Amino acid sequence: MIWLYRVVFWVPFIIAILTFLWLLWLEFFKKGIGLKTARRATFLVFGIFAFQMLAKMFIFYWVTKHSTFGPYLLKTPSFLKSNLWYIAQTFLVYVLVAVSFTVVAVIVYKLFKRPLFKKSDLWVVFATTLVAGYPDVLIVLIGALLLMILIQIIIVAFAHKSIRLNLIPFLIIATILVGILNNFNFYLTFLRTLHLI
Question: Around Cβ 42, how many Cβ atoms within 10 Å?
Fold first, then answer.
């Protein structure tokens, strides 16, 4: 069953990363990320992580049912309900975080005369913050802003001109990097040092 847990964990993440790489390719080498494309990518990311949650629930139920004490544990409604709710809770918190940051992005989009985002970018904000989740979303946002500022400084220093950069590509890059860093102990230690976990 360990291999099944690994598949359920890794497949959605890999699909999300490939989706983000595809969006980056469109942003840098094509005409940009269109509204329909961003919407489809977001629905794909949301769908695979919702499926991951359901798959975790099924695996938990199946493993419990076939364990030694499974028949006794499943007779206790509170045991099954509390564990399934725990699995769902993580996903729902991630969705809530993604919705919150998207609402902030929409407010910024509406308030500024020269918007920092396009309409399609608002969908990408939801997708990236959903994949990042809490507390990684804070690191992603800070990392994206710092990366954008650094690139802007390099462009001004070497090209001697100022270019209006879009935050979204840097948000995607930061999401991918943080997702990879999550697999290393030094990053988790860093989060603990900041009291984020």
Answer: 23
